[in-house]
Design a protein that fits this description.
Length: 87
């Protein structure tokens, strides 16, 4: 069960007016919550990407940048073949 918490935010009036145009005054909280969830997922994804950048730098399967590119291409080709054969 999801619990709602009342909060007080100071936002620019023009921004709130624009949100209300899209979401309607009764949909403001739902709209803002969805926007915050989306931004939070993005921020967490970027933080994880930064925290793990270069972690496989010395991995034996990927001695060069080109070996990584080839591995990605092969995976994509395999996926395309799989989708084409589902037919």
């Amino acid at each position: 069960m999801r619990m709602n918490v009342r909060t007080n935010l100071l936002l620019p009036k023009d921004l709130v007016d624009r949100v209300d145009e899209v979401a309607g005054p009764r949909g403001r909280s739902r709209y803002v919550a969805a926007a915050l969830e989306k931004q939070l997922r993005r921020d967490l994804w970027h933080a994880a990407a930064e925290a793990t950048a270069g972690i496989w730098k010395d991995h034996p399967l990927f001695p060069t940048d080109e070996s990584v590119v080839e591995w990605v291409r092969a995976g994509r080709a395999e996926e395309r073949d799989h989708l084409a054969n589902r037919g």
